[in-house]
Sequence to fold (222 residues):
Amino acid sequence: MEDHLHIITGHYGSGKTEFAVNFALSLARAGYSPLLADLDVVNPYFCSREQSEYLSANGVTVIVSAGGNSDMPALNPAVNALLEPGICGVMDIGGDAVGARVLGRFAQKIQAVKYELLCVLNFSRPETATPEKAERYLREIEKSAKLKATGLINNTHLCAETEAEDIMRGASLANEVAERTGIPVRYHAFPRRLEDKIALPSETLLPMDLLMRKPWELETDE
Fold:
């Protein structure tokens, strides 16, 4: 982890926002002062802006953009701060190729700084259940983003029912995607309660506190 731009994308339902939030918090714990830009302008649920107060209290500055189902959504000009050299930034991008379109608008500026484009894979989702399907989604995202992916994230989960076996199965399939594409597996993400049960290289592990709530959970607060 270092001072550069980390772009988090993936299929809708892959858990990319949960990963983005936890990844930004891990950067803060490592001594960085990360900026987290919520650029999910497609889906109104599972947005990192939900946890703005918690993130701010834990060393993460959140930049929120106006949403809307549009090819040209309103973006907070503060997003440009992430495109400056030496800035530790995390971009939470909307799901699928549609959400990745927003990156196309910044592609030239992104290429001028040190960055990584990480694609979250959840092999429990039917649309990305196999390495072949996952690669297809990855290539569609790259095309929309006008950027090449630099790393894969195994976040294979079944929400609250996730077990270590799901993570290990996802790790095996993610490795197949890596072999097919030449893009390395950078992280294996999983609920923190499973931390002692995941037998994978320690430098790839990202235990997560599950912070994002489902829409029906939000409704219970009203």
